[in-house]
Known about the structure:
Layout: H1 32-35, E1 37-41, E2 46-51, E3 57-62, E4 66-71, H2 72-75, E5 76-77, E6 80-83, E7 86-91, E8 94-97, E9 102-105
Antiparallel strand pairs: 1-2, 1-9, 2-3, 3-4, 5-6, 6-7, 7-8, 8-9
Amino acid sequence: EPAASPPGPSSAPSPASQPALGSARGMSLVSPYQVQGKWQHSSGGDIEVMVDSTGKSVVILHPTVGKQTMDVSKFCQGEGLDYYGFKGKLEGNKITWNNGVAWTKTS
């Protein structure tokens, strides 16, 4: 019975709270397919990002880190990207990371 539930943050989530997975498809959310392709690392080297056939994982070939497979849900964090704790912002054909690195799309 809803009327009997105690007041508090759990009973009425605010609209700003995290939407359930799959329910939010706004223009600002990053899709792994936007990041898919070849990128040039600002300090040299090429990066390739591929989405696997299930669409649930991304495979990242990085010049220094090597080949990494990550869950899309970990890599795509709402409007931004998260690569092992580094936060990235996709703007057009460039991803700027919070450690000063930029990836520029080449294809």
